Amino acid sequence: MGIRNRCRKFLLQCRYASMSNGRSLDENLSDLGLSDRFSPEHARWISELARLSCEHSGEIDEAISEVLENWRLDRLSMVTRLILEQSVAEAWFVGTPVPVVIDEAVELARDFDREDSEGFVNGVLDELLSSYKPPPSSGKRG
To answer: Is a pLDDT exceeding 70 seen at residue 140?
Structure first.
């Protein structure tokens, strides 16, 4: 498992913890050992993806909703939704290549979500990331 893969998994776990325990994402990042488990460079990468995921959650959720067929965003499991949001933020605002983002998201789904979620995550991200670009006002960050 590569370091960025570990970073993505750690961030997903922290975001899930934040949604579950009601504490801020920053508190969960710290409490779960961001600075102890990762080099300063990788801790910055995680923190930046966390910030971008939160900062752009409204526009990301809107874009996800537009590609969902026969589903509503609020019907997705928390893990599925977090994986989709984090993956879109990484593709749009970090600039990670779409095939890498999709492969990593499928692995997150395989490791942390229901058995049938891998194909769902793959399909939603393929549709979304191949047809949508980040909103012009947001711009890509890196």
So the answer is: no
